[in-house]
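Slack export, channel: ligand-projects

TW: morning all. Re-posting the request from yesterday since it got buried. We need the structure predicted with the small molecule present, not the apo form. The ligand is flavin mononucleotide; the SMILES is in the block with the sequence. No rush, but it would help planning for next week.
GE: picking it up
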Amino acid sequence: MLMTVQDFETAARMRIDPVHADFIAGGAGDEITVRANEEAFRRLRLLPRVLRGSAERALDISVLGSRARTPVLLSPTAFHKLVDEEGEAATARAAAAAGAIMIVSMASTVAVEDIAAAAREAGEHGDPPPLWFQLYIQPDLGFTEALVRRATDAGCAALVVTVDSPVRGAHERDLRNGFLDLPPGLRCEHMVDPREGGRVHPIAMSPVISWEHIDWLRGTTSLPILLKGALHPEDARLAVRHGVDGLLLSNHGGRQLDTVPATVELLPEIAAAVAGRIPIVLDGGVRRGTDVVKALALGACAVGIGRPVMWALAAGGEKGVRRLLELFREELDHALALCGASGVRGLPPDLVRAPAWGPASAHTEREGGA
Ligand SMILES: Cc1cc2nc3c(=O)[nH]c(=O)nc-3n(C[C@H](O)[C@H](O)[C@H](O)COP(=O)(O)O)c2cc1C
Ligand SMILES: CCCCCCC(=O)C(=O)O
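GE: finished. pasting the full C-alpha cell output, ligand included:
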C-alpha cells in the first residue's frame, strides 16, 4: 500500500529503467545538498499549541492571483514521458483534480497547449487552478519571447524563471550511466522552433543571463514573474527591486551547485530580506505534511514537490499522482489539527523549533563521535 512518499519511490523503482531512476533521484556532485534538504526538515521540531483547534482546517491558498485548494504545488520537472506514456498530460489531470498548481517545465515532453487541455478536462466540473510556466531565459530573446507568448496563450498564469543554472549541474550518475539525451521518440516540445521548420533546439543554460534579462522579461509580459533558485538574501532584495513578483526558494533539489544550504534552512533569512513584499514558495526535500507546516510557519506561502511527483507518476500514472497529492493533503490536515491550527494561513514561526545550525551543532556532532 502506498502510504508514504518513500513507498512511491520503492514502487516506481520496480517499474522503471534504473538509469531513469538515477536521473530522478540524483543530484550534483556528492549530492550533499540533495540529502541536506530532507535532513534539515527532519532536524526541525514542531511545538504545537493546545485547546485552540477547529473542526475543519482551511487548506486553500491564493498566490499571485492564482487560487488553489492546497499549498502543495508541483515544481517543474522535466521529461515526464520517461516514466509514463502520457507524460505531463497525466500529471496535469491529477494536479487539476486535486486543485493544485502545476508548474510546467520548459523541458516537458508534452506541449503546454496539450497540458493545459488535459488540466481543463480534469477540472471540468470544478475550477482547476491555473498552470504556471517555468522558463530558462534563452540567449535567443526572440525565441524566448515567442515561448512566453505561447505559454500565455495556453492560459499559464505566472512565469517561473529558473536562475540557478548559468551552466548545468554536474549530474555524475547520468554521466556514469551515459544518460546524456532523451530516448528516440521523445523531445522537449517547447524547444521546437517554428521559425526553423520545426528544428528542436537544445536548452541553453547560459552564464550571460543577468538582471538585465529580468528587466527585459518584465517589460515583455504582464504575467507575474517568480525567480526560482535565488538563494542569497541580497539577491532576494535585488529581485524585489527588479519588479519580480515572487520567489521560488529552491536549490533545484540539489541538482545545480552542490553543498549549498538546505532551502528550509535559508527560509527565515530570505523571509526577513523580502519582509512580506513578495510571496515565497519553497521547494526541496518536502516529503511529509509536517514539512509543509514547518515551511509555512517559517514564512513560505506554499511549497513545491519535485521528485515525489516523478515517483508517483512512474508508480501509477495519473492515479499515482492523484494518490500522492491526496496523501499530502491528509498528512497536512492531520498535522495542522495536531498543532492546534485552523488552517494553512498565518501559521506562527514559534510553531517551529530549530536546533542551532552552524558551528555549534557541528561541534556537538563531532563530540557525539562518528
Ligand atoms: C527529475 C527532475 C527534473 C527537474 N527538472 C527541472 C526543470 O526542468 N526546471 C527546473 O527549474 N527545475 C527542475 N527540477 C528541480 C525541481 O523543480 C525542484 O526544484 C526540486 O526537484 C525540488 O526538490 P525535491 O525533488 O526534493 O522535491 C527538476 C528536478 C528533478 C528531480
Ligand atoms: C539540457 C536539458 C535540461 C533539462 C532541465 C532539467 C532539469 O532542470 C534537471 O534538473 O534535470
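GE: first-pass observations. The two ends are 35 Å apart (CA to CA). The chain is about 40% helix and 10% strand.
TW: perfect, thank you
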